[in-house]
Structures are given as C-alpha cells and as structure tokens.
Amino acid sequence: LITEVRLRRILDSRGNPTVEADVSTESGGFGRGAAPSGASTGEYEAIELPAEEAIANARELAVPRLEGQVYAGDQRSVDYVLREADGTDDFSEIGANSAVAISMAAAKAGADMLGAPLYQHLGGAFRGNQFPTPLGNVIGGAEHAADATDIQEFLAAPVGAPSVADAVFANAAVHGAARDILAERGEAAAKGDEGAWAPSIDDAEAFDVMAEAVSQVAEEVGFEIRFGLDVAATELYEDGTYVYSDTERTPDEQVDYIADLVEQYDLVYVEDPLDENDYEGFAALTEKVGASGHPGEDCLVCGDDLFVTNVERLEEGIEEGAANSILVKPNQIGTLSEAFDAIELAREHGYDAVVSHRSGETEDTTIAHLAVATAAPFIKTGAVGGERTAKLNELIRIEENA
Ligand code: PGA
Ligand code: ZN
C-alpha cells in the first residue's frame, strides 16, 4: 500500500523547474520519478502546468486519494486514481507533469517491492529478448536551437549493432565524427537542447555531414548504421504551406520531398514529416515509403505530434493508414497505463511503438525500462549529455543483466 507521495521541484536539463515524485509503500518499497518537458510540443498533448502549480494541485487533489488507499504495484489503479483526481481529459487540473512523475514513481516502487528491475515489473516474463536500437540525435535545430537546421533532428540509427552497448557507442562516435566534419568545413557548432550539434548550416549540408559521419563510423565499427529524421513539420507549417529558410512547399510537395529524401539517403526513420493535423498526408507518404508490409524493409513513418501517445488519435490514424509507427512519450498522455494502451493498440495494427525522451529531461531512466519492457524497435533518447546518457547507460546495464 502506498503510504506517502512526496512531490518537489527539481531542475531539468534546460534549467527549468520540473516535478519529481517519491512514492513510499508500507512494506518499505520506494520509487522516484521525474517529469520531462517538451519544447516542440504537440497541440493535443496533455497539459504541463508550471511545476509549483502542478505540485500544489496534485497535493490537494491526487495525493490524499493515493496515500493509504492504492497499491503501488497496481499500476492501473494508481493511474485511474490520477485520472479521477484530475477530472479533465488533458490533465489540466493536476498537470501531466505531476501525473507522469507519480505514475512512474509508483511503478518503480512496485518494482522495488518485488525486488525486480523496472523493465521486468512492466514487461513481465513475456517481453522476449529484443533490445531497442537507440536513435542518436546528432545534428539539429528548429525549436531546439536558434539559427540552425530547419529539420529538427538528424538521428543516427545503428541498425546493425550486435548489442545495445555497441549501438550506444556507435551513436556517440557518429556525434563525434559530425563535430570533426563540421570543424573541417569551418562550421562552429554549439549544441542544441538535446546535445545535438546545432551549426548554422542548411538542411542540405546537414544531410551531407550526416551521411559522411555515418559512413565513416560504420566503416570503423563494421556494422550497418543508417539515419533518420524528426522533421517536426508542425513547426514549419504556416497557413497551408511548409516554410523553410530557403523555400516553401505545399503539402503535396512536402510528401514528395520527404519521399525523395528517404530514397536518396536510405532513411530508416522519419518522424512528423507533416503537420500534426494532416492524417491524409501521413497516409500518402506511408503508402510511398512504408507500406510494403515487410518489416525491416520499410522506412518507419512515425507520428509524434500527430498521435501524442493518445489512443483516440492513434485510432484515427490507423483508420486512415497514417504512419506505420507511433512515438511514445508518457508525459504526452500523463500515465504509464495510457502509454501502454497506445503501445498495445499500435501493436495490434502492425504499428511499431518507439519510446522517446523529451528535449527537456532529467536523470530519470524510466523510458529505458519502458522500451525494453515493450520490446520497442527503437528508443529515442539522444546520444550524449548526462540526462541522455542516464538512459543510454541504463540500457547498457539492463542488457548486461537481462
Ligand atoms: P520535444 O521534442 O521534446 O521538444 O517535443 C522532441 C520531439 O519532437 O520528438
Ligand atoms: Zn518529434
């Protein structure tokens, strides 16, 4: 039984306050979870409140319904109580930041009581033995850095790595190679919010640098490394057109542009290539690049802002054939149970579920466990930087012990 839920303000990686929750149980179990925070958030995400407000409201409305009343190991009940206590569809009362911190802390307390690692508690005995390939953010811009690329993220994908550890080090190597290639080209590169290089170059040059960095490192390590993108196209979309630094594209042109990029660079992954309301465009692109029905041959077309980890949004997408994968960010929906629901629905319909961090992060490692527990094909959690390596290093430990 949960005996205490403590909430506090802690720092996130951008230096902003975020919510941390500690859950303690009668039998001595303990779990801690912290909410991440997005910068290029989707319109349909659950609401993040200012940390102080989220904490005050959760203390008043949710904590009394949890303490002494719910078992930490009973994740569905914990998350149901959070929903009931909040009473809205979008967690605008207690904040999705308080909700997700408590939800994750309860899961960890549940695992602690069992003496089991979190992934085992979340995934049980039937998860199989697949480990996620980390997608490493190497070059980026848009909402994550000023005066850099239009495309938000260029992501290394070490699909041929024999282990998670090899993949993690390969991504770091691609990140390092990209820095050196940029330096050779005279491009000073600061880092964006997720630790990706944020040089003042256009997308075309970023593709060049990325392709070179990936092939250099692939040669060194001796396994296949491809790459992918998070276009975060909602941020480019204005009054019916995609506005790039040097050009504009109509929705049809955007579909063709992305399909050409997939072809030209053999991209393995494209996230949010179109606006978050354009199910039709997503369907058209998926038809072009992701619809052979043979897993492993296609490009993953992934909905982040499109689906926002929301079962109803995903149902709509499935009906229209929009995308073939969903990005899963627990704080977009507010609870682990609902993140699991989205993953399950995706699975049933042949969509891959990719687990992801946010641009604002903490040392919390829940998503590493979630990705392993659900046998996600990919996890997006950056390449370097402490709040990113917290997850990557946890994956290395999990693989060693699993
Ligand atoms: P965000 O960006 O966390 O700032 O929303 C990450 C993403 O778009 O995937
Ligand atoms: Zn995204």
Automatic annotation (TrEMBL):
<dbReference type="InterPro" id="IPR020810">
    <property type="entry name" value="Enolase_C"/>
</dbReference>
<dbReference type="InterPro" id="IPR000941">
    <property type="entry name" value="Enolase"/>
</dbReference>
<keyword id="KW-0324">Glycolysis</keyword>
<feature type="active site" description="Proton donor">
    <location>
        <position position="194"/>
    </location>
</feature>
<dbReference type="GO" id="GO:0006096">
    <property type="term" value="P:glycolytic process"/>
</dbReference>
<dbReference type="Pfam" id="PF03952">
    <property type="entry name" value="Enolase_N"/>
</dbReference>
<dbReference type="GO" id="GO:0009986">
    <property type="term" value="C:cell surface"/>
</dbReference>
<feature type="binding site">
    <location>
        <position position="380"/>
    </location>
    <ligand>
        <name>substrate</name>
    </ligand>
</feature>
<feature type="domain" description="Enolase N-terminal">
    <location>
        <begin position="2"/>
        <end position="122"/>
    </location>
</feature>
<comment type="similarity">
    <text>Belongs to the enolase family.</text>
</comment>
<keyword id="KW-0963">Cytoplasm</keyword>
<dbReference type="InterPro" id="IPR029017">
    <property type="entry name" value="Enolase-like_N"/>
</dbReference>
<dbReference type="InterPro" id="IPR020811">
    <property type="entry name" value="Enolase_N"/>
</dbReference>
<feature type="binding site">
    <location>
        <position position="153"/>
    </location>
    <ligand>
        <name>substrate</name>
    </ligand>
</feature>
<dbReference type="GO" id="GO:0005737">
    <property type="term" value="C:cytoplasm"/>
</dbReference>
<feature type="active site" description="Proton acceptor">
    <location>
        <position position="329"/>
    </location>
</feature>
<comment type="pathway">
    <text>Carbohydrate degradation; glycolysis; pyruvate from D-glyceraldehyde 3-phosphate: step 4/5.</text>
</comment>
<feature type="binding site">
    <location>
        <position position="230"/>
    </location>
    <ligand>
        <name>Mg(2+)</name>
    </ligand>
</feature>
<feature type="binding site">
    <location>
        <position position="144"/>
    </location>
    <ligand>
        <name>substrate</name>
    </ligand>
</feature>
<keyword id="KW-0964">Secreted</keyword>
<dbReference type="GO" id="GO:0004634">
    <property type="term" value="F:phosphopyruvate hydratase activity"/>
</dbReference>
<feature type="binding site">
    <location>
        <position position="271"/>
    </location>
    <ligand>
        <name>Mg(2+)</name>
    </ligand>
</feature>
<keyword id="KW-0460">Magnesium</keyword>
<feature type="binding site">
    <location>
        <position position="329"/>
    </location>
    <ligand>
        <name>(2R)-2-phosphoglycerate</name>
    </ligand>
</feature>
<keyword id="KW-0479">Metal-binding</keyword>
<feature type="binding site">
    <location>
        <begin position="356"/>
        <end position="359"/>
    </location>
    <ligand>
        <name>substrate</name>
    </ligand>
</feature>
<feature type="binding site">
    <location>
        <position position="271"/>
    </location>
    <ligand>
        <name>substrate</name>
    </ligand>
</feature>
<comment type="function">
    <text>Catalyzes the reversible conversion of 2-phosphoglycerate (2-PG) into phosphoenolpyruvate (PEP). It is essential for the degradation of carbohydrates via glycolysis.</text>
</comment>
<keyword id="KW-0456">Lyase</keyword>
<dbReference type="Pfam" id="PF00113">
    <property type="entry name" value="Enolase_C"/>
</dbReference>
<feature type="binding site">
    <location>
        <position position="152"/>
    </location>
    <ligand>
        <name>(2R)-2-phosphoglycerate</name>
    </ligand>
</feature>
<feature type="binding site">
    <location>
        <position position="359"/>
    </location>
    <ligand>
        <name>(2R)-2-phosphoglycerate</name>
    </ligand>
</feature>
<feature type="binding site">
    <location>
        <position position="304"/>
    </location>
    <ligand>
        <name>Mg(2+)</name>
    </ligand>
</feature>
<feature type="domain" description="Enolase C-terminal TIM barrel">
    <location>
        <begin position="128"/>
        <end position="402"/>
    </location>
</feature>
<feature type="binding site">
    <location>
        <position position="358"/>
    </location>
    <ligand>
        <name>(2R)-2-phosphoglycerate</name>
    </ligand>
</feature>
<dbReference type="InterPro" id="IPR036849">
    <property type="entry name" value="Enolase-like_C_sf"/>
</dbReference>
<dbReference type="GO" id="GO:0000287">
    <property type="term" value="F:magnesium ion binding"/>
</dbReference>
<feature type="region of interest" description="Disordered">
    <location>
        <begin position="16"/>
        <end position="39"/>
    </location>
</feature>
<dbReference type="GO" id="GO:0005576">
    <property type="term" value="C:extracellular region"/>
</dbReference>
<feature type="binding site">
    <location>
        <position position="304"/>
    </location>
    <ligand>
        <name>substrate</name>
    </ligand>
</feature>
<protein>
    <recommendedName>
        <fullName>Enolase</fullName>
        <ecNumber>4.2.1.11</ecNumber>
    </recommendedName>
</protein>
<feature type="binding site">
    <location>
        <position position="380"/>
    </location>
    <ligand>
        <name>(2R)-2-phosphoglycerate</name>
    </ligand>
</feature>
